[in-house]
Write a structure and sequence with these properties.
The protein is built from eight helices and 15 strands. With 269 residues, it is an alpha+beta fold. It folds into two domains: 5-146, Fructose-1,6-Bisphosphatase, subunit A, domain 1 (Fructose-1,6-Bisphosphatase, Chain A, domain 1, 2-Layer Sandwich), CATH 3.30.540; 155-264, 3-Layer(aba) Sandwich (D-Maltodextrin-Binding Protein, domain 2). Strands 4-3-5-6-7-8-9-10 form an eight-stranded mixed sheet, with helices on both faces. The longest helix is centred in the first third of the chain and has 27 residues, at 5-31.
């Protein structure tokens, strides 16, 4: 059974408050870089104890508020939902590489999935005090003001973020980069997939595309883009929740040319 509007709003408001609380903790630790140590999960895949602390805080709060809900966190916090209960998907600090280098471009990302779809998403950028929120059928907002994707239709005026990770290797990323630049677009990579997708929803960029991205990095942003009038590929297809997937999130006018580029590069959307 789908969540009704009241239940969705209740969870969205809770997630927004939690994202702010968690983000303020991350901001305080960011400003005192001597307060944490840095490790590696893999090449360019940084980890700090702050990631785990923030994730445990969010998981604990959500469990108290919604004890039957499931939870999937990037840093390993997990709880299986009972029956068809909703499940939270959380990235405590998306943009950890920026965080550890002193670059103020990172966020807390909290998404809610239920009945096979993404229902709500919250992304909080603590350094800019920007809270992006959306829920199915309710529109998308930045600090309570409605947002919409851009009206860009021409690749030669488009600004496109291309996500990169070491899982797919440099050749595929460089192929996508070459195709996007050859089409006349400005190519970006800012180090936070969640914020990159949120920026598409807010009309600050025109598209986000990546060969492979994990659920906690994109699900909240996907809701934002869809509710802001954009196009989002079917990320949850083919076990996207547990294994990750390719992603295209864009203004509708760029869907066809970017899908054609993705197809040339062997990306299954």
């Amino acid at each position: 059974m789908a969540l009704d509007d009241r239940e969705l709003d209740l969870r969205l408001h809770a997630a927004a408050a939690l994202a702010r609380e968690a983000g303020e903790i991350a901001k305080a630790r960011f400003r005192d870089r001597s307060s944490f140590t840095v490790g590696l999960k893999g090449p360019q895949d940084f980890l700090t104890e702050v990631d785990g602390e923030v994730e445990r805080l969010i998981a604990g709060r959500l469990h108290k508020l919604f004890p039957a809900d499931g939870f999937i966190g990037e840093e390993g916090e997990g709880r299986i939902a009972r029956g068809d209960a909703p499940t939270w998907v959380v990235d405590p600090i998306d943009g950890t590489a920026n965080f550890v280098r002193g670059v103020p471009h990172f966020c807390v990302s909290i998404a809610l999935i239920h009945a096979g779809g993404a229902e709500a998403g919250v992304i909080f950028d603590p350094m800019l005090d920007e809270l992006f929120c959306a829920r199915r059928g309710g529109g998308a907002f930045l600090n309570a003001a409605p947002i919409r994707v851009s009206t860009t239709k021409d690749m030669q005026t488009a600004s496109i973020e291309i996500g990169y990770n070491m899982r797919v290797g440099p050749e595929k990323f460089l192929g996508m980069l070459a195709d996007v630049v050859a089409a006349g677009s400005a190519a970006l990579r800012c180090g936070s997939g969640a914020l990159g997708i949120a920026y598409v929803a807010a009309g600050r960029s025109d598209a986000f595309i990546e060969h492979h991205i994990n659920a906690w990095d994109c699900l909240a942003g996907n809701v934002l883009v869809a509710e802001a009038g954009g196009y989002v590929s079917d990320f949850l297809a083919r076990d996207g929740l547990t294994k990750g997937n390719a992603l295209l999130a864009c203004t509708p006018g760029l869907r066809e040319p970017l899908a054609a580029i993705a197809a040339r590069e062997g990306v299954i959307l």
